């Protein structure tokens, strides 16, 4: 299952799992995937490969709703839930001195509480089937560094929380369930394009700070996502995989 699977990095990772031969269910707060063309492409891939691709609308901040949707997925899926990529998240930029409490809570509720709800629901299913599994959460390089020229303290804190959450859950649920984080750098998405439009100098700064001289693209996280989900990372647990 992939949370935040209706767009951006999430839908790219969903495609990677299909390409690796997995049945995939995407959940997102959007009623349908953001790009019908991309979803049609993934649907065709699933059909030609004899795999299942499903979609559910879900607000991950609602624990009861998360549990219900994950139970429905488990009942419908042709195979047990063995993998979760928790990639749902939001961003809100504001100077810390002016940040409104409601916006702070919204970011934390989605990025930290919502991710915990998703991870908990998936782990419960894995334990019920007694098959184990792998859980990965999308954190961020911002969990461990301070960004230049990007003011989003609650976001950074919410992602740092995921890194420690993964370590703690990895210890608690081992050896059956592995829990890790994947921390991207700047990714070229609709969200970051909007941030650059608001401040054109950011692109030059972000690309200049990276040894490769550019921002990453969503497809470049397919390999790391499949690695963390598969037995290729069978001895990787409580680890933050930084791709920045």
From TrEMBL:
Say yes or no: keyword NADP present.
yes
Cited Gene3D superfamilies = NAD(P)-binding Rossmann-like Domain
Do you know which InterPro entries this protein is assigned to? NAD(P)-bd_dom_sf, Sc_DH/Rdtase_CS, SDR_fam
Q: Which keywords label this protein?
A: NADP, Oxidoreductase
Q: Name one GO molecular function term.
A: oxidoreductase activity, acting on the CH-OH group of donors, NAD or NADP as acceptor
NADP keyword on record? yes
Family, according to the entry, reads as follows: Belongs to the short-chain dehydrogenases/reductases (SDR) family.
Protein name (Swiss-Prot/TrEMBL): Uncharacterized protein
Q: Which organism is it from?
A: Schizophyllum commune (strain H4-8 / FGSC 9210)
């Amino acid at each position: 299952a992939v949370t935040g699977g209706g767009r951006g990095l999430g839908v790219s990772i969903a495609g990677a799992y299909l390409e690796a031969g997995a049945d995939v269910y995407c959940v997102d707060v959007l009623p349908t995937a953001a790009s019908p063309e991309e979803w049609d492409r993934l649907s065709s891939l699933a059909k030609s490969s004899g795999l299942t691709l499903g979609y559910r609308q879900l607000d991950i901040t609602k624990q009861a709703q998360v549990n219900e949707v994950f139970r429905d997925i488990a009942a419908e899926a042709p195979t047990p839930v063995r993998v979760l990529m928790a990639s749902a998240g939001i961003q809100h930029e504001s100077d810390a001195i002016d940040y409104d409490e409601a916006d702070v809570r919204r970011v934390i509720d989605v990025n930290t509480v919502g991710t915990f709800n998703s991870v908990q629901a998936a782990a419960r299913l894995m334990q019920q089937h007694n098959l184990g599994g792998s859980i990965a959460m999308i954190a961020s390089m911002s969990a461990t560094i301070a960004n230049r020229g990007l003011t989003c303290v609650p976001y950074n804190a919410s992602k740092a929380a995921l890194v420690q959450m993964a370590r703690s859950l990895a210890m608690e649920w081992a050896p059956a369930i592995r829990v890790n984080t994947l921390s991207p750098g700047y990714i070229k998405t609709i969200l970051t394009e909007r941030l650059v439009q608001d401040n054109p100098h950011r692109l030059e700064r972000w690309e200049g700070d990276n040894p490769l001289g550019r921002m990453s693209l969503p497809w470049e996280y397919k390999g790391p996502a499949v690695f963390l989900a598969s037995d290729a990372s069978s001895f990787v647990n409580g680890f933050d995989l930084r791709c920045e």
